[in-house]
Amino acid sequence: MFYKLISHTINVMYNTIQAYLKGSGVKKDKKMAEYHCKLAAIGGHDGCRTMLGNIEKKAGNMDLAMKHYMIAASAGNDNSLKKVGEGYKGGYVTKEEYAKTLRAYKTSEDEIKSEERRRAVSDAVEKTMEHTQRELNNGNSVIALGTLFM
Fold it and tell me: How does residue 121 score in pLDDT terms, banded at 50, 70 and 90?
């Protein structure tokens, strides 16, 4: 429950950023957008971390931009991984930093796939058990037994 609340809060911050950038419901204010972007990035929003990298890159702070991109890429952000690759080609990221980021990106992707797979199996088992229970409640023990062995 706590993690869902944190995730929801971070997404609200992201929406707040968009509102300040577009002037939607609030006065357009890039400083406030950047402030909320920093908070969301600290909270783990990889998209906001990428936005901070873009802000730093535009300001000419390539070292800081690359650090933001590497953090976001390590969390599985595709766009940031591309930016890190560009930074490597441009000489802003070392071979070791790029390799470390690629490994972290792969680990993040594997964890996402594993979690999705676990959730899919769990959902399938739950649906099968619900169907089996419904069939048993309706007196269809043969169908229920068949459902368990499908």
Answer: low
DSSP 76: T
Helices (H), 46-94: 46-58, 62-74, 78-90
- Token reading at 23: 């002037």
DSSP type of residue 24: S
Is the pLDDT at 8 greater than 70? The verdict is: no
Residues 6+ apart with CB under 8 A from 79: 50, 72
Number of domains observed in the structure of the chain: 1
Residue 121's Cα: distance from chain center in Å? 21
**146 by DSSP, 3-state: which?**
helix
pTM reported for the whole predicted model: 0.68
| Cβ-based neighbour number of residue 18 at 10 Å | 12
Residue at 144 is within a domain: no
Is 141 inside a domain boundary? no
Burial class (CB in 10 A: 0-12, 13-18, 19+), 74: buried
Task: Give buried/exposed letters for 86-116 (b at 16+ CB in 10 A, else e).
Answer: ebbeeebbeeebbeebbebbeebeeeeeeee
